[in-house]
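<context>
A single protein, sequence plus fold
<entry> Chain with its tokenised backbone below
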Amino acid sequence: MSTTSGTPDTRSHRTQRRLGRRLLQLYSGLTLYGVSSALLVRSGLGLEPWNVLHQGLAELTGLTIGVVSIVVGAAVLLLWIPIRQRPGLGTVSNVFVVGVAMDATLWLVPDARGLFARISLMVAGILLNGVATGLYIAARFGPGPRDGLMTGLHRLTGRSVRLVRTTIEVTVVTGGFLLGGSLGVGTLLYALAIGPLAQFFLRVFAITGPGGGSTVVASGKPGQAILRR
């Protein structure tokens, strides 16, 4: 019985198809992430932590929230230099695609009127954010700027990922709220739901690697696995 997995041409074709799917997942996920964030803005019931800061800065500067997201993402990326983090395609794409998609959706979708419509947009935004997170993380093109900051500080300080992430997000939420960002029930529900949702959709969108394994499951001890944003 043959144990080969195909000719070199066949393996090359499979690799190209896998790369094509990964790129599709990356940019679909980042685009949907921007769309989901815009839906949360239009709901008026609270944003995810970093967008509370982005919205607060947008109120302060007069820029759109998407442009602020791009500027903040680029600034955070500069912080990778002293902590020796290396960006990937997904990292750089995250900075621009999410902000552009967010502003485009805000231009197309009006503010919700009525409690039912607002709740519907909030729920849709949170669910779509989970789908988007699973899509772009499973593509494995590198973490977003904010998650790279988290993992870099974790490595640099020796503190747990949970503590570092909590400290960062409490800081940005507090700063954003003081600047006028939207903090509400949507922020709380997002914090409770995004972990389980992302974990579920990571499994749904997992891409089988060359050796038959999932590209989502990292090597090493289970405790080393982190959920990247």
Remarks:
- Residues 8-43 form the longest helix (36 residues).
